[in-house]
Amino acid sequence: MLVSFNELKKTLYEKLLKLGANEGIAEKASQIIAENDLDGVSSHGTARFKRIADMVKCGTLIINNTATPVSSKGAMEVWDGKLGLGVINASICMDRAMALAEKNGIGCVALRNTNHWLRGASYGIQAAKKGYVALCWTNTTPNMPAWGTKEQCLGNNPLIFAAPYKDSYIVMDGALAQYSYGALGKAASEGRTLPYPGGYDSEGKLSCNPAEISKTRRVLPIGFWKGSGISLLLDIIVSGLSNGLCVPEIGKLGSKTTDERMLCQMFIAIKPENARAMDIKTEAIIEAVKHAEAVDSETKIRIPGEGSLSKREKNLRDGITVDDGIWQTIVSV
Amino acid sequence: MLVSFNELKKTLYEKLLKLGANEGIAEKASQIIAENDLDGVSSHGTARFKRIADMVKCGTLIINNTATPVSSKGAMEVWDGKLGLGVINASICMDRAMALAEKNGIGCVALRNTNHWLRGASYGIQAAKKGYVALCWTNTTPNMPAWGTKEQCLGNNPLIFAAPYKDSYIVMDGALAQYSYGALGKAASEGRTLPYPGGYDSEGKLSCNPAEISKTRRVLPIGFWKGSGISLLLDIIVSGLSNGLCVPEIGKLGSKTTDERMLCQMFIAIKPENARAMDIKTEAIIEAVKHAEAVDSETKIRIPGEGSLSKREKNLRDGITVDDGIWQTIVSV
Q: Are A292 and B243 in contact (CB < 8 Å)?
């Protein structure tokens, strides 16, 4: 079905109130979740609302708890998410990293005991729109094999880089698995094969068959051994600095609900000394990429975040398409 | 030939003096370069010494210049490398990021006008050995196509994550191209095909043929579009914050020598509030990976940096093997 941004936000707001959220939390969370659909990322927006509701109902997500500081040293702080709503905690901690950066040039918050932040780009964009460079990442449940293992012992630990650009921003948001399980499921249900190998089949061979990969759960890290190594280090850094649960510990929690919980997240904000220099460099880089010879005449060269920005424009104008099944999971909360 | 670490370091020290370096710079640079070979990474150690000598001779590397601060705001500083020796500038700036982190919890230096740092892991290890978490990256000359382009318009922009671990460290150092040109050249000269596609052949097809890829120069970013996007953002951030040259600008400098120059680098250090927590989390993560089922009975599961640590031990005991041809390029300086 087609809904306007305001209608979608209002529906989410009311459902959050029904789940027990106070008005401030319902307002802010509905805005973040609806914006994910507005940007064309419903997989990390409305498609996950049901999981939030389920977690609230079984007590693994305490909807009115919000992150509070645990320790502080200058520009670096550790916060405890108190099992609150992931989108709220992440937004609070990125705001805090920005406040620390405003004072100290750079600021960092390591957050523990939080829940799924839905779409990592949200927090990179939050910072970049206010003029800050941002780096953030999250750990996850073990959902990706390490290089050389069959077993899922690492997280796909999405990593986000964002920078302000003129009155907009550039953002790169990517999990460290080549394809998400969501993307694999979607391709399988549509009968498509993947354009590039996304994992291993049951014979241990690299495969473009999304159903086979979903079965073995042996998804491929980006860059093979490289993405595996980056994932391991991101988990060490975020769980070590926050003293929260690391990926293997998250995996041992057991699945009270369908979603992972008690995650750690890292938020780094940097205040550019010279905003004009940032714009000039960014423009030069974009121009070089946009003017490079394309692989063929049909290929449109894209800048990270460009697709979402154009979907946002279109969806604001024409309305947001929400899958009927997903809409049902929301209205039935 | 086989040389001891001390012999290698002494030879490099003397050659640096001959190139005009003062004793302090020759001492520190010879240590860093020799340690790269000690760790088994001669491709980023002795193999690049000739390029340093060439750059000194043609005036693009001013051997006794060292980085100096340009601007400072709390925990974030911009430094100018004044075309000095890359290994010295990088080491100075990582030390400075650590000093800022000691005071502020986190510290960051964005460096411009520097030269090739040889092996990025050196500076991650430098910080991790002293108990700091480190993130650093460099931009490069345009040496990798963006996703969707044939032309090399992005850098492979190596990205490093490091963390202290007990009396040692864990370090992940990787360029954003799947294989370096060095690795492609080595495989080609040994008549090997690559285990995984490393780029495109002249027909525009993904290829495991290293000679073909070296010819087209269409190396593959890790994770296809993902590594391409990360590379673009790393360049925006490092060139924008330091107000130094971005990748396309570096590409326009023209090649006075065989090596890239006037690069930008980013150094972030974080002081863990709780070093014991870092060790506990790291141990849990390593144990989970090491105990996961391997893909087959021959595969040894590796932790990032593990290979270099064991080579260091072996090379300290048995001596370092330096390629005869490379040794000649050094002694003939």
A: no
Q: Are B16 and B53 in contact (CB under 8 A)?
A: no
The H or E element containing residue B144 is strand B144-145
User: If DSSP codes are grouped into helix, strand and coil, which group holds residue B33?
Assistant: helix
Which residues of chain B lie closer than 8 angstroms to A158, CB-CB?
A: none
Q: Give Dmax (Cα) for chain B.
A: 55
A44 given a catalytic annotation: yes
- Residue B200 sits at φ, ψ, to 5 deg, of -115, 145
Segments of chain A scoring below 70 in pLDDT: 255-258
pLDDT of amino acid B180: 86
Both structure tokens of B62: 């001013």
Chain B from 174 to 203: CB within 8 A of any A CB: 174, 176, 178, 196
**pLDDT score of B259:** 77
Query: Tokens for B86?
Result: 């890359």
- Measure CA A63 to chain center: 19
For an interface test with B, give the residue of A100, A108, A125, A241 to mutate (most B CBs within 10 A).
A241
Q: Are strands B76-80 and B106-114 parallel, antiparallel or unpaired?
A: parallel
Structural tokens at position B158: 């190596």
**Secondary structure E strands in chain A:** 2-3, 68-73, 76-80, 106-114, 133-138, 144-145, 152-154, 159-165, 168-174, 199-200, 206-207, 263-270, 320-321
Q: Distance between CA A137 and CA A264 in Å, rounded?
A: 9
Closest alpha carbon within chain A to B299:
A148
Give, as one character, the DSSP assignment of residue B120. T
B177: closest CA among B204, B201, B213, B205?
A: B213
Rounded Cα distance between A76 and B106, Å, is 6
Amino acid at B258: T
Average pLDDT by stretches of 10, chain B with 333 residues: 97 98 98 97 94 95 98 97 98 98 98 97 98 98 96 97 97 96 87 94 93 94 97 98 98 79 98 97 98 92 95 97 96 95
Question: What is d(CA A78, CA A68) in angstroms, rounded to the nearest whole number?
Answer: 9
Of B268, B235, B305, nearest to B94 (Cα)? B268
Distances (CA, A) of A324 to A182, A230, A303: 17, 37, 31
pLDDT at A12: 98
Q: Which of B170, B178, B97 is CA-nearest to residue B136? A: B97
- Torsion-angle region of residue B325: left (phi > 0), alpha (psi -120 to 50) or beta? alpha
Task: Set out the domains of chain A in order of their start, with CATH numbers.
Answer: 63-177+221-276 (3.30.1370.60), 185-214 (no CATH)
The amino acid that residue B158 corresponds to is P
- Answer left, alpha or beta for residue B73, where phi above 0 means left and psi between -120 and 50 means alpha: beta
Look at the block and give the residue holding tokens 């006075």: B256
Bridge partners for A265 per DSSP? A111, A138
- The pLDDT, as a whole number, for residue B257 is 65
Q: Distance between CA B37 and CA B14 in Å, rounded? A: 17
Name, in order, each residue with C-beta under 8 angstroms of A263's C-beta and a sequence gap of 6 or more: A86, A114, A115, A116, A117, A138, A139, A140, A244, A245, A250
Using CA atoms in the order B47, A232, B210, B115, what is the torsion angle rounded to 10 degrees? -40
- pLDDT number for residue B41: 94
pTM score:
0.98
Distance (Å, whole) CA A37 – CA A118? 11
* Contact call for residues B112 and B89 (beta carbons, < 8 A): no
Residue whose entry in the numeric block shows the structure tokens 């107000």 = B243
Q: What is the pLDDT of residue A258?
A: 67
CA dihedral B271, B277, B278, B283 (to 10 degrees): 170
